[in-house]
Records
---
Amino acid sequence: MMNMVLFLTKFLSFIMLMFSDISNSDDRSTSQSHVNIVILGSSTAEGAGATKLENSWVFKLEHELKILNNSCRVVNFGKSGYSTFHILPNEQFFSGRPNPDKERNITKALSLNPTMVIINMPSNDAAYGFSNVEQLRNYRTLIELLKNRNIDYLICSPQPRNFKEIATRQRQFTLVELMRKEFDRHFVDVWSGLTNEEFGLKNSYNSGDGIHLNDDGHHYIFQQVFARIK
């Protein structure tokens, strides 16, 4: 009789432990399932130029996605002044170039197990004098990591900026065409709608500094990104 009681006690303890592990696993899964989209970017992603945060393209995107699915969450790592070098993985360093920001880069984004990563790097690389070759190499590094994890992604084109040198503006346009060809269906063209005939920023989208977008410019980016996600 004692052996039977001991057996039943151990068996019930095992069953309780098993269901406890399953419950904990479900809790972990649920806590991460709401992290759907991570934004990697610079000042435009952060909301610069918009009259208020609610008018920024990232805020608008999250608002509209929540209408479709209330559990949807957008995590925004955009930071003013950042370049493609800032968002590289933790271990990726280049002499004379910015180091990755471990709190706002691709490594941090991947740690959140997102379903999609959106990259929005408008013009800082060009402003710092970083070449198109460097930028494309950095994008390829990011994409390889995302592909390895089967995470979907979108890459926004550069934005026009009123650089003093026409050669810099033309180099931006060349980068747009290279990205369009290489990244194909993952490419979001915001350049074409924002640029003027001199490869600068259209007055109608200029917040006033020739760099950042006003409310209409942010709305335009939101429309292009949202259409691709839908």
Note: The domain at 35-229 is CATH 3.40.50.1110 (Rossmann fold).
---
Amino acid sequence: MPAVGTDTLANARNRRWLGLRAYDPSLLVWLGAALFLVGLMVFPLGAIFSASLRDQAGLSLRNYVAVFTHDAFLAAIWNTVIISFWVGLLSIILGGLLAWLVTRTDLPWKKAIRALVMASFVTPPFLGAFAWTLLAGPNAGMLNQLYRTLTGSENALFNVFTMHGLIFVMALYSFPYAFSLVANVCDLISSDLEDAAIILGARKLRTAWTITLPLALPALVSGFIIAFLQALSLFGAPAILGLPAGIHTITTQIWTLFHYPPRLDLAAAFSIPLLLATMSLIALQKKILGRRGFSTVGGKGGQRRLVKLGWGRLPVLVLVLGVLALSVFLPYWILLKAAFSRAWAMPLEWSNFTLNNFNFALFQYSDTRAAIFNTFKLGILTATVGTLLATLIAYITNRNLFPGARYLTFFALAPLVIPGIVLAVGLFIVYAQPPIVLYGTIWILFVAYLTKEMPVGFSQAESTFKSIHTELEDASRIIGANRLTSLKDITAPLAKSGLIAAWCFIFIGVIRELSVSILLFAPTSKVVSVVIFDLKEEGQIGAIAVLGILMLAVSFFIVFGVRWMLDRDLVATRE
């Protein structure tokens, strides 16, 4: 019996060694997923570069010459740089300050403040921009009306249809990126150096300025870059607030190049500087975040003592809630008011109360029901296929299934450096002509969303797989299971929470997307974001408010659902 046992163990070891290295019958699935991912990224980018170098005469640099010599194009580039810079600066000021207050002080209501910052993050910037047209429009804006009533002035307090107004609104929905980065760093910084500074007589603000700020500086710079990139690639807010004032950005200028007759060559050439700028800034951000030594002084286990605000707790809390009122409370309130009002600019009294806006938006307006159906169809389909593809790619890269597998990470994260409107230009060029014609159908939007949201799903799946040891997979391989079976029966159930989160994040990204949709939709494939943009042109304020509330409600339902499931699984794991 011992001899048999020893022989069996030896055979098992040999089988394990051979099984893990022998041909896997599921290899075609892994190679197919890898090729599909590479095709998603290569075709649109290749089409953009090719189109940018061609005109009616053939290969030429005339498109680039036109981009960098035409006054309108140069003005759009300059406006984009100025707006993005100030948005980035305001974002790190607001986000960095709030992050420090939430993580390093005894500020009350911290969980509520974090939740409200998340609400600002979830709010689509184009919806926030629309809400601020109702709040700070120069004529009928609610805040300007209130200012005139209180002061008797005939002038507006604030005109949102200006460069300053556009920067202000975009910053309100970009600062959560800086908040998240700085808060994560401040949570790790030990209080040892801060305590030493206080012992030496430094005041609280001087300690924060000379100790905490330098330690968090890489996160602040990274937050600036992310906010800059967010502003660089946005279409909705510049279109809603900038175009009425004659302010063009790169994204709105590309959009105008698609008007009849479309100039795809110029649109492609105009997309390249935006793409290169994004790639450069992402590379810089990764280099900055690659420096790990800045985040902690005493190690992860170092003590972190809160700064006592003393008598300043209440004023600081009012300041924080004031910032959140600008990004959450006031916009949400004006949307609710407009949704239930006959005339949104009038007080919400019983005589002005109505449900007709819901009836019109959901049942009478011809595009709405089809748009809602398309949005949820695309959201569910993209989230499902995207999660599946992201799972396969993350598994390939994490387990290094074949030579060069780790290079797939680059392709999975590539859409991070491709602004949505640039991606739309490439997809239009590829799929508006044979051999594969998808333009005019809902499927071009599906391909666009799948490509754009891939980094979200991949990052979530990859981080989940890294936390799962391979021993159970190896055991299933020893008894004859192939890689795909091991993933389905062993790894995926263990990674359930992370994969559900990936599905939900992709779904939310799809239903709030505008920059891709605005170039690729057809009359039969409109989505809710495009309908909201169209309704803005028609002046249907109440209907926009209804659809905006619907979009926000679905997003928050998904976010809280994910949070609840993750918390439940965490509790189950601890038990």
Note: The chain has two domains: 23-54+358-532+539-575, 78-347.
---
Amino acid sequence: MYNNLMKEYDFYIVPTPIGNLGDITQRAIETLKKVDIIACEDMRVTQKLLNHFEIKTKCVSYHKFNEKERIDYFLNILSEGKKIALVSDAGTPLFCDPGAIIVKELRKNNYSVTSLAGANAVATFLSQVAREDEDFFFAGFLPRTKNQIQEILKKYQSTDIVFYESPNRILNTLKFIKEIRPNSKIALARELTKVFEEVVIDSADKVLEYFEKNILKGEIVAMVFRENTPQEDLDLQEKISTLKNKGFKAKEISVILSELYGLNKNDIYKMCI
């Protein structure tokens, strides 16, 4: 049992295992047992976890479709001196999961909030993927359209991009990445902490080829490695992007930048298209 002399809080953000039930902490178990209410995304998913650890605490639903509706309900419970724990289906709440709305309201109403340490798919993934430095951009779940994905890949091409993806969308996403940044390197992990955990690190085309031949199941975390592009090229691409947003065409941009910076017009045109 963890130290019972620890400070008491009104609201606990409790990470749950992302796969392997053995990854739950003792403090998380004890906290879920002692609070009066557990707010959870899917009560069926959470109940399986609670049954496994013989936790009898009452659950109430709290998901992206009823976040605002639950505010008054939770505030009333806390006003009675009761305690609440928030969990997601897996991992740490507020990482691409509900929770931000109620936490904001609780702090505004001077209720104490704390987070427990525990499972997180991003940290679990990055701890086994070697990178050049600690800097990375977390995109959450990537947008659905190619243009939106392209915007992110271009904007953060000098930074490692980490994102979540679903099995039914990942092949299309990999195709977009290969098309937009054909020379990119990708790390992709699925079923982290589970029996069939798999991490593949290779060029975009080889990762795509591999998963076109192998069935993808379970939650996916992936990373597009940064491009080792000279800073002057990145600066030029930023200028091209700015002019495009202003409505200039590729030919116009190539003329403008070649005149301003003494660069080869044809090279700029190729970068534009």
Note: The first strand starts at residue 11 and ends at 13.
